[in-house]
Amino acid sequence: MKAIIKTGNGEFELRDVVVPKPGPGQVLVKIIAVAQNPSDLMKLNASAGDGAVIGDDFAGIVEELGSDIPEGTQKIGDRVAGFVHGVSTANGASGSFAEYVVADAHVLISIPESWSFEQAAQLGLATFTVCQLLYQSQSLASPANPSDTTLDVLIWGGATVVGQYAIQFAHLGGMRVIATASKKNFELLRSLGASDVFDYSDPTTPQKIKQLTGGKLKHAVDCVSAHNAPGQISECLADQGGVVSVVLPYETKRLNVETKFLLVHTLLGRAIDGPASYNLPKSDEERLQFRQRGAQFAKIISDVVARGLIKPTSVKLLPNGLASVKDGFQYMTDGKVSAEKITYIVADTPK
Length: 351
Description:
Blueprint: E1 2-8, E2 11-16, E3 26-35, H1 38-44, E4 57-65, E5 79-83, E6 100-104, E7 109-110, H2 117-120, H3 123-136, E8 152-156, H4 161-172, E9 176-181, H5 186-192, E10 194-199, H6 205-212, E11 219-222, H7 229-236, E12 242-246, E13 257-261, H8 284-306, E14 314-318, H9 325-333, E15 340-345
Parallel strand pairs: 8-9, 8-11, 9-10, 11-12, 12-13, 14-15
Antiparallel strand pairs: 1-2, 3-4, 3-6, 3-15, 4-5, 5-7
Helix pairs in contact: 3-4, 3-8, 6-7
Organism: Rickenella mellea
Protein name: GroES-like protein
GO molecular function, one term: oxidoreductase activity, acting on NAD(P)H
């Protein structure tokens, strides 16, 4: 099969490699579309992972089942989306920028006909990350059990892909969603369920948000976790403090503001190496708990997708499939991505 292989720090090639075989609890997916994430670029530029397939997000069709697949879950021919731990050679893992991928069955999302594969390819990392941000880090209400009382939640960086899904899931959970973005994306975020949207570049935005919430805001999600966002979010929170779920680990200067970070790949339930700040599960028991969380999140996501309750982020489809990955990474490096998801149709890759 064709696959994008990391060959060195910041380097990769399109090569022919052997099609992987699914192990226990896994399925082989014939990939139709893949989506690009900032983490793909980060791992590409890291020192580890040479010889591994790049990419995490995918959508495709189940082609082969491994052993120990629970009855009533996946079957051959199912349309699915999900994520893997790309640029990793551990645990038989394989990346998604390829014609086939082995994926853990418990974190697969069922895709209805109303979603195209190129739309569904973006769901994996983004929606599972949102579930961790809202439900695992903060125990906020989910669409499966909406809150009877209105609770304010701030989504900072609402136009990012994670931000757009965080707005939708929080809104479906019964929360009043306050978001930040550039002015050009205000109407988009309102259409997704944000009640109020503020300009993240306006230095008075924290003051405005604090006034709107009566100085009682205790829950925030930081979908940027860089630049000025940590300080700005802290200013929005109540004087008594609060909790901020973050997409990259950091600590705030406010003693009564707690930041919580969880790596989405922990939901695969496998051993992962990483820095201490990643708070990775250390025992088999902890990894099993994360695996069970992943299965719960997959059901929540599959349900809202099947019921048509969420909308996909705008797709930026690049031509020539995997042959255009270099162009996609450059587009991202140049800072041109805005409220969209870079996506590739694998079959468009020149033979």
